[in-house]
Amino acid sequence: MKYYKLIFDYENDEQYLLAEPCAVVKDKYAVYEGTVIDDWVPVTFECNPRNGSVVTEMLGNSYGWPIMSRRAIELLDGAIRNEVQLLPVKVINKDTKEEIENYYVLNVLPFLDALDLEHSLHTYFTCGDIKVLSVMKYALRKEGVENHNIFRLKESPMSIFVSEHFKRIAEENKMLGLDFLEVKVIS
């Protein structure tokens, strides 16, 4: 099976609604930890329709959160049901203050130790006293990702990876806002 890094479709983002949080979120990195969040307080995002008016299944936002529409969740449900926690967010039109669509942050729970550094193109840099891994091209160990349709990597928690099955559902249903970068899978 093939796997892909899930990214926002920046090639068409001039037309797409983009969301900005209305207030600073106390712990905006909680959704990158692979743990259930019990004390979620829904975040409100604003979209300026003058900067883009196309409503998408994956909403671009300054936090880099995987914010998906209810339609996307319903279509992908069988593939991701046991691998994500749905955290509701409110998305409103900046001008009219009306809610645009029901959206959810996908809190991706599988946190896998499946990065194959030997076959990945990567480097390390330091930020203060912390050594940080930067991956330009990912390679995944097949035995570490099998049977998962969506996951994060322990070594690279900001990125989300999805299966060929996930990608096929998204493409067959013409979901907007999603793009996929194929990654190498090592047997």
Descriptive account of the structure:
The protein is mostly beta strands. It has one domain. It contains 3 helices and 14 strands. The strands form 3 sheets. The protein has a 6-stranded mixed sheet with strand order 8-12-13-1-14-11. A hairpin with a 2-residue loop joins strand 9 and strand 10. Helix 1 runs antiparallel to helix 3. It is globular, with a radius of gyration of 17 Å. The protein starts with a strand and ends with a strand. The mean pLDDT is 91.
Tally of strands: 14
Average pLDDT over all residues: 91
Structure annotation, total helices: 3
Helix content: 10-25%
Counting helices, strands and paired strands, the structural category is mainly beta
Beta-strand fraction estimate: 35-45%
Rg from alpha-carbon coordinates:
17 Å
Largest sheet: 6 strands, mixed
The structural domain count equals 1
List the topology elements.
Elements: E1 3-8, E2 18-21, E3 43-47, E4 58-61, E5 67-69, H1 70-80, E6 84-93, E7 99-108, E8 111-112, E9 121-127, E10 130-137, E11 139-141, H2 142-145, E12 150-153, E13 156-163, H3 164-172, E14 178-186
Parallel strand pairs: 2-4, 3-6, 8-12, 11-14
Antiparallel strand pairs: 1-13, 1-14, 2-3, 4-5, 5-7, 6-7, 9-10, 12-13
Helix pairs in contact: 1-3
